[in-house]
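Bench log. Compound arrived from synthesis this morning; before running ITC I wanted a structural hypothesis for how arginine sits in the protein. Inputs:
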Amino acid sequence: MKERVVLAYSGGLDTSVAIGWIAEQTGAEVIAVAADVGQGGEDLEQVRQRALDCGAVESVVLDAKDEFADEYCLPALRAHGLYMDQYPLVSALSRPLIVKHMVEAAREFGASILAHGCTGKGNDQVRFEVGITNLAPDMRCIAPVRDYAMTRDKAIEFAAAHDLPIDVTKKSPYSIDQNVWGRAIETGFLEDIWNAPIEDLYSYTEDPAQPRPADELIITFASGRPTHIDGEPVTMLEAIEQMNARAGAQGVGRLDIVEDRLVGIKSREVYEAPGALALMKARDELQNITMERDLARFFRSVSQRWSELVYDGMWFSPLKQALDQFILVANEPVSGDIRMKLHAGTAVVTGRRSEESLYDFGLATYDTGDTFDQSQAAGFIELYGLPSTLAHAREQRVGRE
Ligand code: ARG
């Protein structure tokens, strides 16, 4: 029997050519697996058929939108998962889901090799391959672009020579990866980091500079999960989709950053993630009123570490999984309503209310009704500053200060 390879298939030029390329290089049969993680665009049935037309022996397409929203985006929302304090991990979140389904397909169709279309310069190859070896140590991984020198020019040549059903002229000058959590745009003229992004790059967001009336809404959360928008119940997927539409229409959620890749390269990335960033801002503000101070301070360092692990392809690592448990427990009281105003590229929280609130009006007020005993503050400050005061007294005594 021929060896079988499961290929993560997107329907685009590179992975379409990879089907025949892998078959030629290895003599194996190729099974294409594509997952709908809310990237939009083409009909999935078309994608499925194209893989077969390009020579795949089996072609599987999965509607993984709810799974992606519930099991990948929601943990990221609860974790406040932002790499370098900004990037909401769009691509990093989808890879482990794809890996999981590739491994399942490999078991189902008797494949022992998994393949992806990533280059040797990015993070995604790491996410695929670490994920695969974590979930299926018995399987092997290949990357035709990296391992079998499948360059862009050769891919176009191959597609023409084999009469593959792909329009190579439609190929965008950018490298784009998108899903319901957001959209990543790189390469092309953006590689000159002084060049400003142009309006053409964006598709999830309108131009924030366009004049339009503001949009105000109320998001309800239960333990860090959005459950209602303006009082209407929503699934996690619906929450993201509705916020993509409403925040996107106001130009919210554009980013332009130079980012530290795991492989050591600094790279320029443009992102748009209107729904993700608006939801994260809302949940974070609800956390501010419902989470105890020390837990919240510690949470921020956990959040940063969690984001780095996920960015670095460690989705299935024990540390990441243990931090997930911490994040879940910390989110328990993060329930209530956030009122948010979306306008001109900004998402601003304008109100918050919660049964779990730790905000005590009586303690906070400067008006009548103050219940805070200010007389206790003086003693508190004296003891609080005592260790440092003693140290400075010593420095002065020995003449170092
Ligand atoms: N830099 C981002 C990341 O590493 C996005 C990668 C997007 N991939 C792509 N093929 N454009 O998560």
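What the model suggests: The chain has a mean pLDDT of 96. The pocket of arginine is lined by residues 91-92, 123-124, 175-177, 184, 186, 259, 269 (CB under 6 Å).
ITC booked for Thursday regardless.
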